[in-house]
Design a protein that fits this description.
- Helices cover 43% and strands 30% of the residues.
- The chain has 3 helices and 5 strands; from the N terminus they run H-H-E-E-E-E-E-H.
- Helix 1 packs across helix 2.
- The longest helix has 20 residues.
Length: 91
């Protein structure tokens, strides 16, 4: 599903126009992004959680050359599905 398809589905489900659905999706994305930037876990009960993850610096190996490469520390996010989502996906 693309962003455009998601906006259309949100508009149909909520009985609103596409511009309102687009603004709602952008607000959701901004809210999740802001929470993760502050190091907060964003929980949507029954759906899942967006969790910030700190990755430590380390060494990796280039598979093509075998050369050791330094990998800097970074921040990322993971999604952990909730029980409601898991049950829908697993029938």
């Amino acid at each position: 599903m693309t962003r455009t398809e998601l906006i259309a589905a949100m508009a149909r489900a909520a009985g609103i126009d596409r511009d309102q659905a687009r603004l709602a999706l952008e607000g959701f994305i901004d809210g999740v992004t802001g929470g993760l930037q502050r190091g907060e876990t964003v929980r949507l009960t029954g759906f899942g959680s967006f969790v910030p993850v700190e990755r430590k610096a380390g060494m990796a190996r280039n598979p093509r050359t075998g050369e050791a490469v330094a990998v800097p520390a970074s921040r990322s996010a993971r999604f952990k599905p909730g029980e409601g989502l898991k049950s829908v996906l697993n029938g």
